Amino acid sequence: MARVLVVDDEPQLVRALTINLRARKYEVDAAHDGASALHLAATRHPDVIILDLGLPDMDGVEVISGLRGWTRVPVIVLSARHASDEKVEALDAGADDYVTKPFGMDELLARLRAAVRRATPADEEDVVVETGALTFDLAAKKVRRDGSDVRLTPTEWHVLEVLVRNSGRLVTQRQLLQDVWGPSYETETNYLRVYMAQLRRKLEKDPAHPRHFITESGMGYRFER
């Protein structure tokens, strides 16, 4: 049974989410501000967090940054902020998904299930993937180049992980956008160009002529060992 931490200062919304989640056999904790959220995350160890950005004591991005200092628990942002730059800021801080208010309960629950699935360890034979100078530790979410750790943002890692787990196979632009940013980002191909360029700069020996992170023009991307 998965445990969900709901963080929002709207009592009616918290109550509605709690009722819907418990009806689907989730265990639910609730916090109405950032400080309580961080405390409950540390003491109750939720499997996923649903987080509003507009909290009374701190911005939700600060909560995400605080969480990412010690945990990889999936965070689904639930916010009335629609601006693209605010979404990117939350995702770069470490959020796993972003849902704008008003929202459909079915869509939110689907994203919740997807976040829990992604965070659940699988029976993977390729927990560590090595190719040339690069080593990817999928369980520890770490990458090394020539024996040295490479620092990736949470979003960079998420893009990389999807590609590495599909090694040798084409991952379409739509699939990659859905897996990393969610269904509402299916057309935001500019995100992929930016993050692929960042990954190549950090990981490829010659970013202008990539060996491992390959673009299939007009279709998607592929990771080659």
UniProtKB/TrEMBL annotation:
The modification 4-aspartylphosphate is found at D52. Residues 126-225 bind DNA. GO terms for cellular component: cytosol; protein-DNA complex. It comes from the Bacteria. Residues 3-116 form the Response regulatory domain. PROSITE patterns: OMPR_PHOB, RESPONSE_REGULATORY. The keyword Cytoplasm applies. InterPro entries: CheY-like_superfamily (IPR011006), OmpR/PhoB-type_DNA-bd (IPR001867), Sig_transdc_resp-reg_receiver (IPR001789), WalR-like (IPR039420), WH-like_DNA-bd_sf (IPR036388). It is found in: Cytoplasm. SUPFAM superfamilies: CheY-like. One of its GO terms (molecular function) is identical protein binding. One of its GO terms (biological process) is positive regulation of DNA-templated transcription. Keywords: Cytoplasm, DNA-binding, Phosphoprotein, Transcription, Transcription regulation, Two-component regulatory system. Residues 126-225 form the OmpR/PhoB-type domain. Member of the two-component regulatory system KdpD/KdpE involved in the regulation of the kdp operon. Upon phosphorylation by KdpD, functions as a transcription regulator by direct binding to promoter regions of target genes to positively regulate their expression. Its main location: cytoplasm. Pfam families: Response_reg, Trans_reg_C. This is Transcriptional regulatory protein KdpE.
